Amino acid sequence: MTTNLGKFTLELFPEKAPKTVEFFLYNAKHGFYEATIFHRVIDGFMIQGGGFTKAMEEKKTLTPAIQNESTSGLANERGTVAMARTQDPHSARVQFFINLKDNSFLNHRTSADPRGWGYTVFGKVVQGMDVVDKIAKVPTGNAGYYENVPTTPVVIQNVKIISEK
């Protein structure tokens, strides 16, 4: 993934989160993430991106919502990438976040209650965590009713698939 602040490489886990990885790769192959931004940056927590343009307009998604795969046993640890979603556990589409620390409270706890579902981890940063940490340090503010938005956009320029198994 190339951003205007540098590159980082993700390893994806299709054996643990097959649908999530399939949808992420589909969107990457079709150029969906190009010119989207990291629109929510909270140092010491996570950086979130993949769904908004520099003008803070939500991009029309190419894929339907994904069934939550957070029961895989993968944890929201530093450097892992997970799907963002609404209160509905099965609402993830294209937005993702990278954990800046171990965020165990985002892990699956129970399927009996929507609040216990957690967030699907589907990969991890294997190279360029220094770039992720650099993104985490950018100044942020409010943009309309959105908080923690970088004052200078952090743009995803492209997502290149290196290899598929």
TrEMBL record:
Catalytic reactions of this protein = [protein]-peptidylproline (omega=180) = [protein]-peptidylproline (omega=0)
Q: What is its EC number?
A: 5.2.1.8
Domain spans labelled PPIase cyclophilin-type: 1-161
The record, for PROSITE patterns, names: CSA_PPIASE_1, CSA_PPIASE_2
Instruction: Kindly give the InterPro entries that the UniProt entry links to this protein.
Output: Cyclophilin-like_dom_sf, Cyclophilin-type_PPIase, Cyclophilin-type_PPIase_CS, Cyclophilin-type_PPIase_dom, E_coli_cyclophilin_A-like
A GO BP term here is: protein folding
- Pfam families the record matches: Pro_isomerase
Q: Which UniProt keywords apply?
A: Isomerase, Rotamase
**Keyword Isomerase in annotation:** yes
Keyword Isomerase recorded: yes
Recorded GO molecular functions are:
peptidyl-prolyl cis-trans isomerase activity
Q: What does this protein do?
A: PPIases accelerate the folding of proteins. It catalyzes the cis-trans isomerization of proline imidic peptide bonds in oligopeptides.
Q: Which family does it belong to?
A: Belongs to the cyclophilin-type PPIase family.
Looking up PANTHER family in the UniProt record yields: PEPTIDYL-PROLYL CIS-TRANS ISOMERASE CYP38, CHLOROPLASTIC
Q: What's the protein here called?
A: Peptidyl-prolyl cis-trans isomerase
Q: Which organism is it from?
A: Dechloromonas denitrificans
Q: What is the lineage of its organism?
A: Bacteria, Pseudomonadati, Pseudomonadota, Betaproteobacteria, Rhodocyclales
